[in-house]
Amino acid sequence: MVKETAYYDILGLSPSAAVDEILAAYRDLAPKYHPDNNPKEKDKFQAISVACEALINEDTRKIYDQGGEEALQETGGDGPLFSDPLETFEMIFGQNKSEELNQDEAIIAQEKNIEKEIAENSRLVSDKMPLTCLLNEYMDEHDVYRVKIKNLSQKYNLMRRTRPDGNCFFRGFTYAYFEYLLRDRIELERFIKVANQSKQDLIDLGFPKFTIEDIQENSMNVLNIIKNKTIESQDQLLKLLNEPGTSDYLVVFMRLLTSGYLQKNEEFYCSFIDGETSMKNFCSHEVEPMYKESDHIHIIALTSATGVGVRIHYLDRGQGDEVTVHNFPDDCDPKIHLLYRPGHYDILYPTE
Questions:
Q1: What percentage of the chain exceeds 70 in pLDDT?
Q2: Which of 33, 122, 301, 338 is geometrically suited to a Cys-Cys bond with 41, CB 3.0 to 4.6 A?
C-alpha cells in the first residue's frame, strides 16, 4: 500500500505500473504539455516530469511509495531534488529516438532544426488560396502535373495548405470537418455523441484513463464552442485551430480514434500491416505518435471510426490528364475533400 498516489495519478497509472509503462505514459503526455506546444501548461509539464523522474528511479520510488512527496523533499537537502523538466524531456525522448531510429546526434539535431524551420515558416493551416497557385511549384516539372492541376481547378478553385510535419492528414481532416460542422448542426450533434462514446471505448481498450479524459475533454471543449456558437465563422475557427495547444489536442484525439478502431477490429485489419507485429504494437508506433505520416490504413480506420466520408485527389506522375480520385469509404457522400501529393495532404474546396 502506497502512502499517496498523486504522481501515479498525473501519469494515468496505477501504483503497480512497471517502468516501461511509466516511460510510455510520459512519452504520451509530455509533448502535449511541453512549453513549446502549450505555454499555458508549464506547471503541468513540470509535474509530469517530476512524477516520471521520481518513479523510474527505484530508490526515489521506494521513498515516495512509503512516505509520499514530503519524504522525497526531505531527502533532497539544500539542492534541487529533480532535474530541469526540459532536461528530463530531452533525456527520455533522446534515448527513445536513438533506440528506435539508431541515428547519431548530428542527424537528430539536423531533424530538429528542420522541424523548427518548418514551424517558424508554416502555419498549421493556411488561409484559403487559389488552387492554381500550385502551378508555380511545378514550373520545371513534367507537364503532366500542370495539366492535372489546371483540370482539377475546374472543380476545386480554392485550397488551404497544412503544415508538412507528418500530421497533415489528421490536421487537414480535422480542420475541414470542423469547418463543415459550422454549417451542419445535425452532423455536429451526431459527432458529439461519437466523441462522448469514444472516451469509454478507449479506456476499455486499456488506454490510461487520465490521458483519455484529458484529451477528450479538450476536444469536447472545441465542439461545444461550435455548438454554443461562440465560434461561427471560418476566420474564427482558423484562428483557434492555428493555436498549437488546441490543434494538437484534436490531432491526438483523431489519432486515438483511429488506433481504437483498428484495435477493436484487429481480426480484419491485421492483414493490412507488415510482419508479425500485433495491432496494438503497430498502433503505438505508427498511429498514435505525433508526426507519424499516414497511409491508407489510417484513412480507412478514421473515416470508419468517425462516420465521416472523405474524397482524396492524388496528384502524381500517373498517366492521363486527370488526378486519381478515391472515396473513403467507397460509397460515401464526402464531407471532406483533400489533395494528396507524395507525402503530404492539403484541403480542397469545391467550386460553388
A1: 88
A2: 33
How many CA atoms lie within 13 Å of 25's alpha carbon, on the beta-carbon side? 29
E strands of 144-277, at which residues? 156-160
- Compute the C-alpha angle 327/328/332, nearest 5°: 75
List 162's β-bridge partners, or say none: 125
Catalytic residue among 34, 298, 337, 344: 344
Decide if 344 is catalytic.
yes
List of residues 6+ apart from 165 with CB closer than 8 A:
115, 118, 119, 291
Q: Is residue 168 annotated as part of the catalytic site, yes or no? A: yes
pTM of the model: 0.69
Of 34, 52, 65, 165, which is the active-site residue?
A: 165
In a 3-state reduction of DSSP, which class is residue 315? coil
pLDDT digits (tens, 9 = 90+) for 43-53: 888 999 889 88
DSSP annotation string for 133-167: GGGGGGTTS-HHHHHHHHHHTTTEEEEE-B--SS-
Question: Rounded distance, CA 206 to CA 14, Å?
Answer: 12
283 is catalytic: no
